[in-house]
TrEMBL record, chains A, B:
This is Antibiotic biosynthesis monooxygenase. Residues 2-90 form the ABM domain. Coiled coil: none annotated. One of its GO terms (molecular function) is monooxygenase activity. Keywords: Monooxygenase, Oxidoreductase. It comes from the Archaea. It comes from Halovenus carboxidivorans. InterPro entries: ABM_dom, AI-2_Isomerase_LsrG, Dimeric_a/b-barrel.
Length: 101, 101
């Protein structure tokens, strides 16, 4: 399994447009083979920071995602809407476990 | 490194109180040894779903966090504010890498 955390600081004036775009991106990505989880959230301290939490079964699923039209479209939009440096981190997981609270 | 994803569906009437509590929880947790990242966000589709993205250097750091007063306080509050089942997943990471967009 591969976990990806992607964080995008967004220009407040572009936030609504970006959220709309991301809702489409989420819907299409969740149809892809090997995508376990693909959700976007906004930071509780700064609602203009958008955070993706993504999980993929394997390298192939992650690779296929980055080759999709909807991912390319999102990437093309970024230079016009970013308000800072994005960060995308990839974590190769050797063990996953649900924790009881 | 250990990544934790925790998701809490919150009663809309309790949302403001919970967010306030989480801001304190974040501030205190970020002071702890071995806590690399500890951020909370709200889902873009449902703002009453609160998502924690957490990273710990090791088992000891995660264990110490769960023994803190501020974590215990948050856990005590949950039964009164949840609107559904929480999910807490732990991922043991064998490799971490920043991805270029």
């Amino acid at each position: 399994m591969i976990v990806v955390h992607a964080t995008f600081p967004i220009d407040p004036d572009e936030r609504d447009r970006v959220i709309e775009h991301i809702e489409e991106l989420e819907a299409k990505t969740r149809q892809e083979d090997g995508v376990i989880e693909y959700v976007a959230s906004t930071d509780i301290d700064d609602p203009n920071v958008i955070r993706f939490t993504e999980r993929y079964e394997d390298e192939q699923a992650l690779g296929a995602h980055t080759q999709t039209d909807h991912f390319a479209e999102f990437e093309r939009m970024l230079p016009d809407v970013l308000a800072g440096e994005p960060e995308v981190m990839r974590y190769d997981v050797e063990n996953a476990e649900e924790l009881e609270l």
